[in-house]
Specification:
Structural class: mainly alpha
Number of domains: 1
Strand order of the largest sheet: 1-2
Largest sheet: 2 strands, antiparallel
Number of strands: 2
Strand content: under 5%
Order of helices and strands: HHHHHHHHHEEH
Helix content: over 70%
Shape: globular
């Protein structure tokens, strides 16, 4: 019932959610930056692994000491309900999702997984919260406008890779299927032992898995 009420409140919103605009803009910029650094060999999966370890250490310290510069970013980009218990949790899982994509998938497939996370997830949340009115049939909490926007923008990002990245082997059909299915799954409440799986991990894993499954058929 609470989830239905939540969706009903979202559907009445007619104004831009500027906090989500700032937060999701940062989300998209982070993902695009990671992708570009990977393409130009500034980053690799082992550097991301080191960032994960360092990030977790900073997270533990920041919960107690609130390191000034880091805490400024947390306050400006983290949702209020997460500030006390799990500050910067989303950032940790974001990097984890990118790392897992690089470990589990071929490089070009991992790139698609990361672009879907960077663009699809960010725009779907912003559009859904700011303009959404129609509940997605497969979800109690997500709005259809957000999912459609996520599919569209992530596919646009895929097309940039498809046309401009040398040696890119993911087909248009595979890329479109990855965008559609990953964004539909993003709207689901997937839980393991009553804990919701973080979208920042689920989205890239689903996007990459879809491409591999299609290649195996």
């Amino acid at each position: 019932m609470n989830e239905v009420i939540y969706v009903a409140k979202l559907a009445k919103k007619q104004k831009i959610d500027y906090f989500e605009l700032r937060r999701q803009g940062f989300h998209a910029l982070t993902g695009i930056s990671i992708l570009l650094f990977l393409i130009f060999n500034v980053l690799n999966k082992w550097v991301l692994a080191a960032i994960l370890v360092l990030g977790y250490a900073i997270y533990l310290v920041n919960k107690k000491l609130k390191v000034p510069i880091i805490w400024w970013f947390v306050k400006h980009f983290e949702r209020k309900e997460n500030l006390k218990e799990t500050p910067a949790r989303g950032s940790f899982f974001y990097v984890l999702g990118c790392f897992l994509a690089l470990v589990l998938f071929p490089k070009d497939v991992a790139y698609v997984a990361i672009i879907v996370l960077a663009l699809g997830d960010s725009i779907s949340t912003f559009i859904g919260k700011s303009y959404g009115k129609t509940r997605a049939p497969w979800s109690n909490v997500k709005l259809l406008e957000g999912t459609v926007a996520g599919i569209a923008l992530s596919f646009l990002g895929f097309l940039v890779l498809y046309f401009f990245l040398p040696g890119f082997s993911v087909t248009i059909f595979e890329g479109l299927a990855a965008c559609i299915i990953a964004m539909i799954v993003e709207a689901l409440e997937i839980k393991v032992e009553d804990r919701k799986l973080d979208d920042n991990v689920v989205i890239p894993l689903v996007a990459g898995a879809v491409i591999l499954i299609l290649r195996s058929l």
